[in-house]
Amino acid sequence: FIEDNEVGAIEPTALRGLRGLLFLSLANNGLETLPRGLFQGLETLSHLDLRGNPFRCDCRLRWLLSWLGTVPSSPEATGRCRSPSPHQGTPLAHLDPRDFQCQQAELRPFQSLPFSSLGAESFTLGGQQGVALAQPFAGACALLEWDQLAGRFRAPTIINSSSPVACHPLPLGGSLLVVVAQLRGGSWIWRRSGGPGATFVRHQSLGAGRLRRPHAVATARLGGHLYLGVADSSKGGTSTVFRWGGRGFYPHQTLRAWHRDTHLEFLELGGRPALVVCSGARRPLVYRWSGGVFTPHTDIPHVPDVYAAKHFRLRGHVFLCLTRFLGDAKVMRWEGSMFREIQQVPARGSMIFQPLTLGGHRYVLLGNDFALSRVFRLGPEGHLEPTQELLVPTPRAFVPVTVGHRHFLVASSFKGATQIYRHITVELGA
Asked: Could you tell me the fold of the domain covering 23-100?
């Protein structure tokens, strides 16, 4: 009898060696949980009294629920839950181990690559996924690839360039194109006709002087044609949409001169193609596809300084994640004619607010230049639920990568080492 003693905790080995034990009472103590393996070896135990303890019925007690199903016991003798509220007052014998979700997905550090990178964009070619990394300080674009023998990633330089701000990969037929947007020396499209290890060659000069200071690149297929959008961040520059003409990209449309555009995002609104263009000086502008061109439709109010916009779809709705370096980040939902705010997140110092899917789980990651980056789980209505924090200095992109049945997250860093995390499942039950 170990009862009425205000016992608040008990060691896993406290009952070891008592192989002939028939009756055990831990009643009327202060036990919120019991350690896994406490009753190991007690094959003769026929009566257990756990009444009067303030049990917290969570994953730490899931093992006990399974064990109780193997021994004769009355519901009252097994005790009741004191917390949490969904189980308060419920006898332990009435709970099912399956009532508890005791697995949690999280990101664990896997590898640090010894170089900084401004951008990271994924692509799939020949059934294999890759990531193109822009390295402005090294003057190069690199393709991240998995080394099967070493069990690690490596990123050899594949294109030498001048201060690339974006290395946008584009599989086309059996070839891989890389759009290299540069601050100096003009922007170029490079082509690789063979598989990994083949040489990239210059294929086309992009823009022919139209692009003064490219900042972001995106592509989309519209009406059977491939389009390339480039945001120009120079004061006198103009963002441009190019169309693939069979052998190269050629200017299709010059967007409204907003000056200092920082990002553009292709998406679909109400079944029609659309484009969101962000500027550090004005409110984001939403274009709708009409007559083969993008026409201004509306702006997004109350956010005059959005750095970038990333979209995701959930339950038939379209959402935007808006990044603001000086203000709160915003989650917006398309309401038929305009975007409306549904949540804001403190984000001073952030330049990336990225929705993505890892291992079947949906997340939104908020990078920060002066604090830890935050990982949010995407709730059923588009609301964000914080899960963990990541130590990534000056992040600029988050990209999911799958290798076999393993899932990774590549986090580019503007001033530090490029980080790779592995997405794993952790068992919370004791």
From this structure: 3.80.10
